[in-house]
Amino acid sequence: MTETSNHKESGNSVPDSKDQMVTGSAWMTAGSIFSRILGAIYIIPWRVWFGTYFFLGNALYGKGYNIYSFFLIAAIAGIPSAIAKQVAHYNAMNEYGVGFRLYKHGFVLAAITGLVSAGLLYFGAPLFDGGDPHVIPVLHSLAWAVLIIPIMSLSRGFFQGYQQMAPSAISQFVEQLARVLYMLGSAFVIMQVLHGSWITAVSQSTFAAFIGALAGTLTLGWYYLKNRSNFNYLVENSNNEIVVPAKQLYQEILQQALPFIVLGAGITIFQLIDQYTFFNFMRGTGITSSVMLNNLFAMFSVNANKLIMIIVSLSSALAITVVPLLSEAYTRNDRKDISSQLTNSVLLFEFVMIPSSLGMAAVAHPLNIMFYGTSHKELAISILAFSAFVAIMLGLFSVTSAIMQGVSQNKRAVRYFAVGTIIKLVLQWPCIHYLGVFGPLVSTTLGFLVANFLIIHWLNQSFGIDFPSIAKKTNGILAFSLIMCGVAYVLVKLLSRIFGMFMVVDSFWGSFVVLLFAVGIAGYVYVYLVLHTRLADTVLGDRTSRLRTMLHIK
């Protein structure tokens, strides 16, 4: 691995945190974005094979996955992020041996929490079905994934503690690839060959999470064996001045891990609030059809959410990268480096997230048609476009909560998230009552807005964030993003008219062609503007000069 922490031959060396953040984010972003794209693309053939059962199947899939996600986060118990943080902490002190022992003890904890959580999900499935018995077999199939994923996630955290992001990113991609292949294979056989039950097909599609986890774990094992000699070298050449008893190691892991459960489950908790309140609150508006309610739930909580999580994963990648880097700076008590990293984190988030969200809103029409067809077309497109803006708040929380964890303010971050959750709960009924299917999205936005504001306010007071510098660059990012958004929107309208003369635009291939041209041209406009004005240089560093040369931009 080229990223291995060989630069840490002494505890006093201070790497270029901005360069590490950009490099690490690039790896994690690549892994996340390709995994999310795979996780969205599968829906196209899956939709065709399910036919008229698609919305019902997708709603059931979403219900099961929301519950599973919460149990999975509880099973992981924040241990991977805690391990990454603590391993980075001890590595910064040149105590690699202690970090290695942390990983071994964390492995035991991950195995135990996985076993307990999988058992609760499997045997307690009837308690979590929310009145829909079809959810039970889906939860049974997902319990197997809960058994193994904590160990896989723990190993990713260990590599991240060494600033090695490639193993995590590649294993993430392999995991998703294996999952999608099994999903599509089982769905095709059950629905098209055997003409079986759509509920069975959904259950097998969710069981694919276990298949993917197995593939991802094996990938990490291969990377560990490949790097074992380097790890052994670092351990043998540690200072070995610190002796930490096993009991203390467990305490450190749990103290760091428990707040990660709540923060890591933040988005999932909001989705569960929607799942258990939406149906009853919507019935109060006069919509009583179970089919219609499931269709509406699928549109905002599953369909749109699946696509916006592609761009939210960009910020999640940054969040994973920033925790060990901030932990190292915090260990050295380097407040200047912490302040610099806070500023860099905010800028990097804006640089990627703002154009991604605005761009997705601009191309919502062909994007939704390509993935979900023309059923409830106008409403589904509006929900997707609105959700693209909601994604900014979700992504920002991923980053800000990770920053709080990096500077050991886990409990404070949990308190701020609790305030945001209360806002969500209080506003849920009036938002749904007056705004219908858009209500949950509005209450989610406001809840995360409050949580993000509280966190950023505290960080600025404690460490200082260079807001004047951020504001100037933000204006540029926002201006170029709006230009790109306008170009994309106009292209969608124009190309739809042009291609509409000789093909059906509101079809998979018609939407694909429009989307390809609109995203390609508008995306290039944004890249050209940020490279030509040198705005990208202030965010990404000198590496942009090579990209400028490749694209022949002066």
UniProtKB/TrEMBL annotation:
Pfam families: Polysacc_synt
Predominant cellular place of this UniProt entry's protein: membrane
Annotated CDD domains: MATE_SpoVB_like
Ion transport keyword on record: no
Location within or outside the cell: Cell membrane
Transmembrane segments: 21-45, 65-84, 105-125, 137-159, 180-201, 207-225, 257-273, 307-326, 347-367, 379-404, 416-435, 441-459, 480-502, 508-531
UniProtKB keywords: Cell membrane, Membrane, Transmembrane, Transmembrane helix
Membrane topology of the entry: Multi-pass membrane protein
InterPro entries in the cross-refs: PG_synth_SpoVB (IPR024923), Poly_Biosynth_Transport (IPR050833), Polysacc_synth (IPR002797)
Protein name in UniProt: Polysaccharide biosynthesis protein
